[in-house]
């Protein structure tokens, strides 16, 4: 569907996200000829820079980060001609005149306000837009994470933004929902007859969802130390993946049908009590170690890190969903920084065969599993038992592999490219609704509270490992192992 003309306004327009992700994403879509010829990107910043100075910053900061498609001079010129820099104080409605003047008056032109700013100023920006007459039925607002730091702040954001924009105009970004494989998971589950009959407690033994990063906290310590892995990754990305794996078939791909199904999962997550919380959650903090053979410092020795920081950089937990479909099936969720490998994957493990007709005991059979790989490579792998070639009847694990890159030669799209296109098209399916956001915070809040009130510390783990040993013990108690422990050669 061709996009209609738009003015995309990036608040935080000279910030890290705009430079690293948003402008490169828009460039890629421009090169793909997705953008209407007169569409513009208005970058809003506080700095009193001229248009030329700002474009110079884009040239030196953003352009080098564009790897694909390779930047050509003509395409770059066409792209930068769309950029307009506007300097104002986002929290002062009286300073919005330059933005009012920069925006085109024609109401048929879609106005998108992308708030890549701290959430503390979302409300003031929305009110200022309204006060300046910049909100019409054809305008949309995009909210970048973190979307609050607990239930109360998330509710406050929803309420304040909701005073200015209708829910149908609000796009809450979780960039994991823009990843190719996440949508392929929808295709896998609901575009095939094979999986849905098996997708339940009778056939599935457990599900593991891992997002592991080799990177440390980098230059984001100021933010990260007040957040931690639970807020930064689990409350949003991991829970969204869990929702897509566990949701009931939506009636259609329409935004509310999908979001209703996801909401039902969030509301069915078993609540933790102080006892179950201690038994089922492990948190850790990285210490010095080696990643890819390179020595890396401890979290507490990162620049500006508090010497006694209690912020977790790793979380592993066993979650359960109280529904007929999933009762009793553990969902192991895990995320961490400075891990042994950088990957994001979902592993659905099926139950063991009930009886072996071969001269091999049942427990020598690896249960079937489906590995859904989000990154670094994108694909699906089904592990099956097969006969080894030659004489005799010996069964061994074999793999059916679908590598998306191999199979579909079409060019890739980064998550932000897809999500920005969806915003510009008015397609809400891949964005969180307000009630989903609140349900996710409601579930994690007891965990946050217990960590805040107690005086215990996260467990230390060496950088370049898979986290504290307690994470293996957590899953080991159920007689299971994390995938890399089962398949070390992977
Ligand atoms: C962000 C987190 O939302 O996701 C970062 O704030 C994290 O801490 C990042 O590094 C991971 O995203 P991706 O797409 O690189 O896996």
Automatic annotation (TrEMBL):
Q: Where does NADP(+) bind?
A: 46, 145
Q: Give EC number(s), comma-separated.
A: 1.1.1.49
Q: Which GO terms describe its cellular component?
A: cytosol
Q: What class of enzyme is it?
A: oxidoreductase
Mind listing the UniProt keywords for this protein, alphabetically?
A: Carbohydrate metabolism, Glucose metabolism, NADP, Oxidoreductase
Concerning InterPro entries, the annotation shows: G6P_DH, G6P_DH_AS, G6P_DH_C, G6P_DH_NAD-bd, NAD(P)-bd_dom_sf
This enzyme catalyses: D-glucose 6-phosphate + NADP(+) = 6-phospho-D-glucono-1,5-lactone + NADPH + H(+)
Give the GO molecular function terms: glucose-6-phosphate dehydrogenase activity; NADP binding
The reply on keyword Oxidoreductase is: yes
Record domain Glucose-6-phosphate dehydrogenase NAD-binding: where: 9-184
Which residues of the sequence carry a binding annotation for substrate? 175, 179, 213, 232, 337
Q: What residue stretches are annotated with the Glucose-6-phosphate dehydrogenase C-terminal domain?
A: 186-483
User: Active-site residues?
Assistant: 237 (proton acceptor)
- Which pathway does the database say it acts in? Carbohydrate degradation; pentose phosphate pathway; D-ribulose 5-phosphate from D-glucose 6-phosphate (oxidative stage): step 1/3
Q: Output one GO BP term.
A: glucose metabolic process
Family membership: Belongs to the glucose-6-phosphate dehydrogenase family.
Functional summary from the UniProt entry = Catalyzes the oxidation of glucose 6-phosphate to 6-phosphogluconolactone.
Protein's recorded name: Glucose-6-phosphate 1-dehydrogenase
The taxonomy runs:
Bacteria, Pseudomonadati, Pseudomonadota, Betaproteobacteria, Burkholderiales
Query: Gene name, please?
Result: zwf
